[in-house]
Design brief:
The chain is α+β, with helices and mostly antiparallel strands and 268 residues long. It has a single domain (27-266), classed as DD-peptidase/beta-lactamase superfamily (Beta-lactamase), CATH 3.40.710.10. The chain is built from ten helices and nine strands. The strands form two sheets. A seven-stranded mixed beta sheet has the order 1-3-2-9-8-7-6, with helices on both faces. Strands 4-5 form a two-stranded antiparallel ribbon.
């Protein structure tokens, strides 16, 4: 009887310890909310400190809510394109057909690297159509990128509208697996992805990432996901924001990166 009681007590202690461990991995950062408020937007900043194994956010509920991936899907879309040989490398050329496009910068021939950085939707729609529904679903299952809803009817739009969803924690999990070579893709593809997602560097850090913007029924939702590498640590980030009544929508796209850099400065 005494042994049974001791076993029960031990199990409770282990359970409590595990719960405490899970809870303490999420640290509320009120300073992040100040950045959000001063930028006149709503949303969540989520940053993962890989050295401390800790997540920091101003709004964990928002961070755990799935949303359309928008152009952040260009990361897995590029991976799948390279792995299936739909594109050869980051210099593969996409010819402009001469038709008017949403942005002037898209109205030119673009290599994959620039198509990624300019977030050229028509280029990536061409890629998705060449990959096809079957292979797209097979690779998405393998890569475990959120919960994508892909059919033959929405193959070139599923990341921009419809039921596809990914949350900020899932974005960071995916990026961690990419950086740590855990996606079970070729080293070549991995290196190309790191190359095209590179944004900037200075004497203190290198910044990699991808923005995303979905506009549905006049409602804006903006992403910036990526990672910040220094000599001593790597921070992974996923920022998701929406305008409020005080937002200047013309400036909204720029706020994603501005907010992220301010949050990363606070992590020192």
């Amino acid at each position: 009887m005494k042994i049974k009681i001791l076993n029960i007590i031990s199990a409770i202690i282990i359970l409590v310890s595990c719960n405490e461990k899970t809870t303490t991995k999420e640290i509320h950062k009120s300073e992040f909310q100040s950045i959000i408020d001063s930028s006149n937007v709503n949303g969540s900043i989520l940053i993962y400190d890989s050295q401390k194994d800790l997540f920091y956010s101003n709004n964990f509920v928002w961070a755990k809510t799935g949303r359309l991936p928008a152009s952040t899907f260009k990361i897995p879309n590029s991976i799948i394109a390279l792995e299936t040989k739909v594109v050869e490398n980051d210099s593969t050329l996409f010819k402009w057909n001469g038709e008017k496009r949403a942005y002037k910068i898209w109205e030119q021939d673009l290599i994959l690297r620039n198509a990624f950085q300019y977030s050229c939707v028509p280029c990536y729609q061409e890629i998705a159509n060449k990959i096809g529904e079957k292979r797209m679903n097979e690779y998405l299952k393998k890569l475990q990128f959120g919960d994508m809803n892909v059919t033959s009817k929405n193959l070139d739009l599923f990341w921009l509208e419809g039921k596809s969803r990914i949350n900020q924690f899932q974005q960071i999990d995916f990026l961690k697996r990419l950086v740590n070579s855990e996606l079970k893709i070729s080293k070549r593809t991995e290196e190309i992805l790191k190359r095209i997602s590179f944004i900037e560097e200075n004497e203190r850090y290198k910044l990699y990432g991808k923005t995303g913007l979905s506009i549905r029924n006049g409602n804006y939702n903006g992403w910036f996901v990526g990672y910040h590498k220094s000599k001593t640590n790597t921070y992974f980030f996923a920022i998701n924001i929406e305008p409020n009544e005080n937002t200047n929508k013309e400036l909204f796209p720029n706020l994603r990166k501005e907010i992220t850099l301010k949050a990363l400065e606070l992590m020192k």
